[in-house]
Amino acid sequence: MILVSSSKRKNKLPRQEKVCIITGATNGIGKEAAMNLAEMGFTLGLVGRNPEKIDATCSAIQTKTGNKNIKFFQADLSLMSAVQRLAEKIKSTYNKIDVLLNNAGAYFADFGTTEEGFENTFALNHLSYFQLTDLLLDAIKATPNSRIVNVASNAHLGTNLNFDNLQGFDGYKGWPAYCKSKLCNIMFTYELARRLQGCGTTANCLHPGFVKTNFGNNNKTSVRMSLSAAKTVGAINVKKGARTSTYLASSGEVENVNGKYFYKCRPKDSSNNSYIVEHQEKLWELSEQLLS
Ligand SMILES: NC(=O)c1ccc[n+]([C@@H]2O[C@H](COP(=O)([O-])OP(=O)(O)OC[C@H]3O[C@@H](n4cnc5c(N)ncnc54)[C@H](OP(=O)(O)O)[C@@H]3O)[C@@H](O)[C@H]2O)c1
Atom 1 (ligand 1): residue with closest C-alpha? Predict the structure, then answer.
């Protein structure tokens, strides 16, 4: 993990006060949310994995918004060792964290594992949210009125977690694994929100809608083609897709809202399964055990 670019507070915008960390900021919903928050004057710590995309994104945001208070951090978030180094670097760069927007995620149609031995979907979509949040939590909690926002999905509807096969080692199916990872995002948010109750930090999650992004493009041609066809017919553009993430990261309306699932900037019910407290606690414990 390297610090890619740094800036001095020379821009003409008012001095930024709020620091927001966004993962998956080089494309899609995360990049658009970064653009929105840069326009609002946030100081941004953006996380990406590809140096060329990082440079291009940084320039695009700075050119469009005039906000120079943007730093980019490079990390492969599917590797927990990289998440650890990232958290250290973030903590040594900022003296507070107002918002953590866990957004990076992907769909892996085929089974694969990271070099650390975790299944790809579970590692990137769930463990990276859990680990980065955990490692930054003291700094976030020390910042008044801070927020953690987790990008989940309506894809969680109709699925449940199998704690005996959480990572799909015993029979992997790509789409169900993705849906379960998004259920993990919601259950993690609810458990986190309960643990944060009364401490001045909130945790909420969201469904962005079906959004025309690069989502799924890491897969083989047949998968990409079917997703592309679906996106052409039914997906909203990324401006609309980033609205709820931006809203939860920045709006005063949700300053004291904790432990909710949002869609179109409004709270909505998630699946019945997501509210089972015993399962939320078990997911937390198992995640801790896997990362210890
Ligand atoms: N698009 C939808 O319809 C939809 C619907 C519901 C929920 N979501 C959720 O929205 C979030 C954002 O997805 P998106 O649609 O914006 O997809 P996207 O366009 O593919 O963007 C994903 C972002 O995550 C980054 N990323 C992927 N793997 C990474 C890794 N190993 N390490 C670090 N960064 C990594 C990507 O980096 P690169 O730029 O280098 O690829 C990119 O910046 C995901 O959590 C997804 O589950 C999306």
Answer: 211
Contact 103, 22 (CB under 8 A): yes
Q: How many domains does the chain have?
A: 1
Name the pairing type of β-strands 3-5 and 19-23.
Answer: unpaired
List the CATH number of the domain containing 119: 3.40.50.720
**Centre of ligand 1 from the C-alpha of residue 248, in Å:** 18
**Residue 116 confidence (pLDDT) above 80:** yes
Atom of ligand 1 at shortest distance to CA of 209?
A: 5
pLDDT over threshold 80, residue 5: no
Which pLDDT tens digit goes with each residue over 238-254? 999 999 999 999 999 99
Q: What per-residue confidence (pLDDT) applies to 17?
A: 83
Do the domain assignments include residue 227? yes
Check residue 11 and give its pLDDT.
42
* Gyration radius of the chain over CA positions: 18
Residue 5 lies in a domain: no
In a domain, 253, yes or no: yes
Residue 41, domain extent: 16-291
Residue 6 and residue 59: Cα distance in Å, rounded?
Answer: 12
78 Cβ below 6 A of ligand 1:
yes
In the structure encoding, which two tokens stand for residue 49, read together?
């994995």
**Over 80: is that where the pLDDT of 128 sits?**
yes
Q: Is 4 part of a structural domain of the chain?
A: no
